[in-house]
């Protein structure tokens, strides 16, 4: 089974569709119950796989624990975990309201940390599994108005790289995906042409291609930007 957080739209949904196309069952969560239900219906009807869903806000520790338990009750081994849940709130560090950093750390970092700890022991025992952390070019590149978002994504990349070292003896792969501007709901209302953005489907293709490599190889970091460069 493939676990993808934030799977109701955007990059998460594109990744779900790619793995479902290859016949994998899916477990996913999101905050919007209606969008999540629509995704389940669409994927199951189109690809004839099972999609297990639960509404959850992974910035909340208790919701994360509940989702982990939900997935484990399904009873299928987790082959792939895609930590995709994230939030972007623009702003400069010296101007941000109190609580913005905490909100983005909880959503962008702690959710991935907690989900990873929830599933990785079984991967280690089986000596098989792959964890994808959807980070950002903001994980290694500072930019104006990036503020706490960049801080949280820098931390996520650090977590991925530490985890990669820890998992080498257990044959568990860890890959960081660092997209630039990608056409998702985060960019709704921005008046820019589509060719200024990468496509969610391209990110999904890269994730799936990395997963299909032999056990001898792992793609550690992937950086993907719009062809015309950063926005």
The top-level CATH class is Alpha Beta
Order of helices and strands: EHEHEHEHEHEHE
CATH superfamily: NAD(P)-binding Rossmann-like Domain
In terms of structural class, how would the helical and strand content be classed? alpha/beta
Largest sheet: 7 strands, parallel
CATH architectural group: 3-Layer(aba) Sandwich
Low-confidence stretches: none
Query: Can you tell me the number of structural domains?
Result: 1
Question: What topology, given as strand order, has the largest sheet?
Answer: 3-2-1-4-5-6-7
The tally of helices reads: 6
| Number of beta strands | 7
Radius of gyration computed on alpha carbons: 17 Å
Strand content: 5-15%
